[in-house]
Fold each of these.
Amino acid sequence: MRTTPQQREGRLLLAPLVAFLLLFLSFPALVDIVYALSDVSFQTMRAPELVGFRNFGAVLVDPEFWSACWFSLRFGALTAVIECLLGLGLAIFLSPIVSRHGWTTAVLMLPMMVAPSMVGLMYRLVLHEFAGPLPYYLTLWFGTSPAFLDASHAFWTLVVVEVLQWTPFAFLLFHVAYISIPSEIREAAAMDKARPWQILWRIELPMMKATIAIALGIRFIDGFRVFDNVFALTGAGAGGSTMSLSIYIYQSFFKGGQIGQAVAASALLFLASLVVLYGGAMLKSHLQKRRLAA
């Protein structure tokens, strides 16, 4: 079948993108596959010895790997839900203020502008048991202070830090989706004597379902693969209590020298993220079909 001029033009325009992907993604991916299937260390990186799926087997039977997976799963799910709930509430209740004063959006976005590693270092100084100002004043005023960074409190401390930094991202998504709802729909519902909570529950939230699903998926993936702020704030934690999957990969690679196992674990992390992305895309498609059918 002959190609049309539009098809040839499209292929020509896509050629730089395809070349970029092949050059900068295919080669590293091929190297990762080879290392994941090889017995390799820093001394043998140029001559890896293929061992099949032994690295994957070693990772899957490692209790620390499953502990890191459980931490990342809990952390990702909990922070995603809290951030989306807070972001949705802020988007709805602050919508009149943000609509009148656009500069407030910039103020609310400020936590996102700081690098996560810097946020981790900042809170590490603030919450340090001996040098931190918050434990000092809590002890001064109430006679005691919880150890925010010990094994029993570190998880919830990390959740609060993550939520404080990334709730503005969820707020931005929901604010855009909320103001894009046609005002005529709200006015028609108000004329039918619908109460505000009924408009929210029966009209506004159903029209924002796709955005809510996307925000939950993005924030879950970001929380699941968290590294920088956790590493700066607590590292792996006491007894590995705050070891995320990304920190597990880092320690296996740089501290343990187990390059094959680290790459195999990263491949499993990539596959898990791909599954979540695919599930989110399917959910979005399903919601869009239901909206069109309605």
Amino acid sequence: MRVIVTMEARLLRTPDGRVWTRGGPDHTTWSRYLSVFDEVRIVARVQPTDGKPVGASAVDGPGVHVWAVPYYVGPGQYVSRRTEVRRAVGAAIGPHDACILRVPSQIGTLMAQELRRRRQPYALEVIGDPWEVFAPGVVRHPLRPFFRRRFARQLAGQCRHAAAVSYVTARSLQARYPAGPTTVSMSCSDVDLPAEAFVAGPRPAAADLTRTCRLVSVGSLDQLYKGVDVLVDALAVLADRSVDVHLRHVGDGRFRSRLEERAARCGARQRVTFVGTLPPGDAVRAEFDRADLLVMPSRTEGMPRALVEGMARGLPAIGSAVGGIPEVLPAADLVPPGDPTTLADAIQRMVTAPDRMAAASARNLETARTFAAERLAARRDRFYTLVRDARRRPDEARMERL
């Protein structure tokens, strides 16, 4: 059986027909579905490009193919191409396909509408929260309040009507978007780490407190979701206090130049390096290994892969109290989003306490081990099997609850 999976990230197609992603899920992620399904069809926006982008990873490959949806960026372009997009989404679905929609997603919403019209079941993988994505300060758009209410309401309805729902968090997304009374629901992170992602043991307490403390952050700069602007402002606060830290940010996007200008204006330009996009795996792990502290001041999150990957390298971490972050970091290592002074306070307390850094390293490494691939594979396969069986028996109103 083939499974159709929607993807909201924008992809790139090179002249040889290969499809690439910069920072999004790649073929390794999509091949997970092949443990239960015979073929995977990814439905996503695809834009032609002349050559493989630097740091990109392949999306397609053995058993995994991409169905291109007309490319658009932003609400305006979507509205102008909505008919074409809807037609392409509908044409992607075969009469016997299983469908898993990764939401929130406009493409996923269109597919859910089409599947309900056809009376075909669908499953969801809930990976984010539109109520937080469109919170004040995250997205700058005159229709932000409308989008926030509309997309949160859409996701709540999709969870009620789905045949099965998998959440990447243990509690937070379930609380806001509960599954329907007859819907199978479960928690299963989409972050699973191979054996090579883990270090052998935690870091010892630092002996040299005089050297510059090295911070690292990771995330796309296409929006301000990751709170890098807040982190830049926190660096300026730390500079005023003569706390010697330097940040390396991994990731790129349209806000990079604005963030560089912001750092220059607030006197933190010499304290931050924008590394750009790196290929997943060894290159990103090398950044974690040379850092002393991972900082994730996000305004919205599901279960952030970069945070878990950093914890698997034994990195102490400071994160915002949003999404799934409080499920992996203790309250003492959490800060409210959007508050640079409180973030600076938390960083200063951590980097000036070697014993606390060492304890955080040990605790984070142990927490990260719960995301080991072998621990999550069986649970994920169980979800895929339920989705497959629901498609084979569409007349059944209920499936056995997990």
Amino acid sequence: MNLPLTRRLLLTGIGSLGGCSVLDRPASVPACADDWLEAEWIRANIQVPVFPDRVFRLTDFLESGAKDASSAMSRAVRACHEAGGGRVVVPAGEYLCGPIHLLSNVNLHLEAGSVLRFHTDPRHYLPAVLTRWEGMELMGYSPLVYAYQQTNVAITGPGTLDGQASRDNWWPWKGNEEWGRPGFPSQDEARTKLMADVAAGVPVTQRLYAEGAYFRPPFVQFYNCRNVLVEDVRVIRSPFWLLNPVLCDHVTVRRVHLESLGPNSDGCNPESCRNVLIEDCYFDTGDDCIAIKSGRNADGRRIGIPSENIVIRGCQMRAGHGGIVIGSEISGGARNIFAENCHMSSPDLERGIRIKTNSVRGGLIEHLRFRNILIGQVQDAVVINFYYEEGDAGQFDPTVRDIVIENLLCDNARRVFQVRGFARKKIESLHLKNVHVVKAAEIGVLEHVEDLALDSVSVNGQAL
């Protein structure tokens, strides 16, 4: 890799703020002319929860000789909440636990050397709770860590959350050839039925998909919460998506290590969230590292809340279907997304920057900014695909517009572009500035793009 250029990309900042603090911008002011000043304003104004200086140690609630910490954890969280908030501290050691339901003003803090290992028997994750699964609302198994309609909640500390998912539990429910195993049931039948329920407008309270549906729960899901923090923790071996805030406002995910190579092990999926910071995180997840979503099909349109004001900075991505992704459950739309100073590389990284939708999903996706992106090895560097999954089989053409990718250096790609709009509904305004692919087997596809601008773009040393 070209080290001088690499260093320039990593060291590029947002430039002078003109002597004016980003905090001076009132909320009513529309988007800044300077995109990266806007990104910094969003980042600076995200509310991070603050907790009282009270400590509730898990071991103080754990009965002598107990091998299961589920009850102790529940009592510690409740005591912390009822006292007005503080930290539930998990000391060094290994603990077996069922689902953790966080409450307002509670920070679950895992000290160095602590490991929370979660039960793999699905019966522990009953009774059913309101959740989203692949962008569709239902009553399903509780996520392993869950908070519903809470304010000021956090998971912090250098300890580990271990879902213990493997080919012997949870993962075979995926049901396909790679993960299916004799004797294990599959999610396929229930998934088809749920999509039919969504299309028919079946009330969410009647969508009962816990026992017998075989839907793997997300690991950590904050649902309709405000002021959320996940910081420093290590999350491994997840049944399904790892971090999945849904309908949340003010979310900070910082210095989190996310590692799980099972089916659908997406790293961090904000759904219909606003004011989100994902910063200095490590992803090795085998599926999308970061995927911004807003609900699938009729459910996404019914709720109608986009993901917006999201800043991604300084993240490392390894194996995955995509590094920084928008979609595919994107029917509620996404806007004001900023990603900078990220590095991604792996023989198993399929796509770098990826937008995926179709005429069934639809969605308005706009004002996306990417800069200072380093890609080592990848299959496809830049993907905008209107033909994902169901393809052109619906009546909800997506609108994708106002995208700028600048200062991107890719060392080795099989294909540079897989950019495909519809002839009747083109991708609008795609600008690439200072984008260089050192080695590529082929340029790929750029079709049905209106207002395509290439400024200092090269592939294999040749200007485009």
